[in-house]
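Here is the promised in-class demo. Please do not try to memorize the tokens; focus on the logic of going from shape to residues.
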């Protein structure tokens, strides 16, 4: 039974590491935009194309920057988060920041199926932790 609990803890840690890897991929994708975050000039396609890709394929990445912790980390790195939030608009992309709360941070309509991958990861890891605690008794 302890082997099962250890396995569950292992998978929980693996899920956490996967989230960190995805966050790093997102940062790498947005790297061409760093020179355009703290300003109001129109960014070039070399920034807007990767940003569009992140909005489409990794919207939870953008949501993480809008969290209090993410905003604090960004500001510590010298990024003005208020100006950074205008970057999608300057690239002609429209996102709904409230979608980060409802689970649909991308550009899809409100009638479509929500992208709740971040919530699913949270639910899965919570389930794994709960199961490992129960099995440890």
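The designed amino acids, position by position:
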């Amino acid at each position: 039974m302890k082997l099962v609990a250890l396995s569950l803890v292992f998978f929980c840690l693996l899920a956490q590491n996967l989230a960190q890897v995805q966050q790093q991929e997102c940062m790498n994708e947005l790297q061409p935009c760093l020179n355009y975050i703290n300003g109001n000039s129109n960014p070039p396609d070399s920034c807007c194309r990767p940003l569009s890709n992140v909005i489409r394929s990794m919207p939870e990445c953008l949501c993480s920057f809008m969290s209090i912790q993410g905003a604090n980390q960004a500001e510590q790195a010298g990024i003005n988060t208020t100006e950074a939030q205008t970057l999608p608009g300057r690239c002609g992309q429209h996102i709904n920041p409230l979608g980060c709360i409802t689970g649909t941070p991308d550009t899809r309509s409100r009638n479509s199926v929500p992208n709740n991958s971040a919530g699913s990861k949270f639910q899965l890891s919570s389930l794994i932790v709960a199961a490992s605690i129960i099995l440890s008794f």
